[in-house]
User: Which sequence fits this backbone?
């Protein structure tokens, strides 16, 4: 005999906030939810593609949504799974799609359509009523790969640079 138990209220609360962030805030672009979702000191960090530039604070999250909506107006995600990490954290896996139709990281629109997958680790305040941290681990947009290529070309050294220096000498 098996019995299913309903999720505990704290887990339901964290799942609802993560859902509202990914679906209502990001996908449906409901900026008015920022004050309900985020702690004043919220930190959003794209750990893989932009770890040195976290977004901080509720106003920062509003700007993040505006920038995302400008660069990728058709951005959407679909949630795959939720998993509890500890009493104040959950992981959420998702997949989505976005087409770059506006400026992104100071680059002009490319028109690239990207499908991506990811996992976000959400951390919550003591009573789990607000999101305090979002660590994003996602696959790349086409523009992320272009930016990595530009950074590599701008760096000194590497095999190609070494060959060119030998030819000049």
Assistant:
């Amino acid at each position: 005999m098996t019995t299913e138990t309903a999720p505990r209220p704290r887990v339901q609360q964290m799942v609802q906030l993560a859902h509202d962030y990914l679906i209502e805030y990001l996908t449906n672009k409901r900026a008015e939810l920022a004050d309900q979702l985020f702690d004043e000191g919220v930190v959003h960090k794209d750990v893989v593609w932009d770890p040195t530039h976290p977004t901080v604070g509720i106003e920062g999250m509003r700007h993040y949504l505006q920038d995302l909506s400008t660069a990728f107006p058709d951005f959407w995600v679909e949630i795959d799974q939720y998993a509890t990490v500890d009493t104040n954290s959950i992981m959420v896996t998702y997949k989505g799609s976005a087409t770059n139709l506006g400026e992104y990281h100071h680059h002009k629109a490319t028109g690239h359509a990207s499908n991506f997958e990811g996992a976000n680790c959400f951390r919550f305040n003591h009573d789990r009523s607000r999101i305090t941290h979002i660590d994003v681990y996602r696959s790349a947009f086409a523009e992320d790969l272009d930016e990595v290529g530009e950074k590599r070309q701008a760096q000194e050294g590497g095999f190609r640079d070494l060959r060119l220096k030998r030819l000049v000498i």
Q: What stands out?
A: The two ends are 80 Å apart (CA to CA). The CA atoms of residues 27 and 76 lie 5 Å apart.
